[in-house]
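Data deposition worksheet. Section B asks for the primary sequence of the deposited chain exactly as it was used as input, without tags or linkers unless they were present during the calculation. Section C holds the resulting structure in token form. Section D is free text for depositor observations; keep each observation to a single sentence. Incomplete worksheets are returned to the depositor.
Section A, Depositor: J.P.
Section B:
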Amino acid sequence: MSAWVADLPWPVVRQRAAAGAILAVPLGSTEQHGPHLPLSTDTDIAVALCRRLAAARDDVLIAPPLPYGASDEHAGFAGTLSIGQNVLEHLVTRLARSACETFGRVLLVCAHGGNAEAVTRAVARLRAESRDVRVHMPHWEGEPHAGRTETAMQLSMTPQRVSMADAVAGDPRPIGELMPLLRAGGVRSVSASGVLGDPAGATAAEGSRLLDTLAVRLIEEVEAWPVRSEAEGPATISSAHRPGGRSEAEAAWPVRSEAEGPATTSSAHRPGGRSEAEAAWPAESRS
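Section C:
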């Protein structure tokens, strides 16, 4: 039977939920990933991890992915579709509240670092409301955006959607050095191609190994997730489950506030969860 909740009739979903099924919700983005990767890269990674989780556990159902997120830092690149921090926070909150009417546990798998701040706030509110909701942000070491790491993962997932002939190296500087420039002008101010790093040398085998490693971490986290009883009261977020996925470099990338407006080339994902500074740019590796 399909692991995708949208493929199932409601009586089957009710039965699975009553038996303790966890709903995994892939969160990603639609944003530029250089001239060689599809805009769906973050979403694809989140979906791939949810698929591996469901393959390892028969108590997991997968919701349709949310392909839009907070991507204002990628403004100026054609095709980037950003709903911003405030809208994303509200959307995730409402979506999870609805999911909790059916499922006792809801897991948000977020592979776009720019979503970290908004998703963290949403999860804190949901858990304060006694809803058993958690967020997992895959974390890996590597280049901040559309470099070798993400290219390798996409090659392992959908090689036909990767154009290595168009791949170019972007700004190679470490994220700490780039941070002031990114805060001031977004990605376009430091990389005309949108790449931070160098995709050269990426292979599908390398990407598959990394996805397997990330999936193991996700599976282990879910295995350690206890089923709460009604008597336990409101859930809290432990430091071990604060969002954070993505590359360490991305984790250091800050998120612009709604008040600041979208970044522009004149004024101004990846991994995630962390301190406020890190939430500034979470896991896509931020991507």
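Section D:
The radius of gyration is 18 Å.
The first strand starts at residue 22 and ends at 27.
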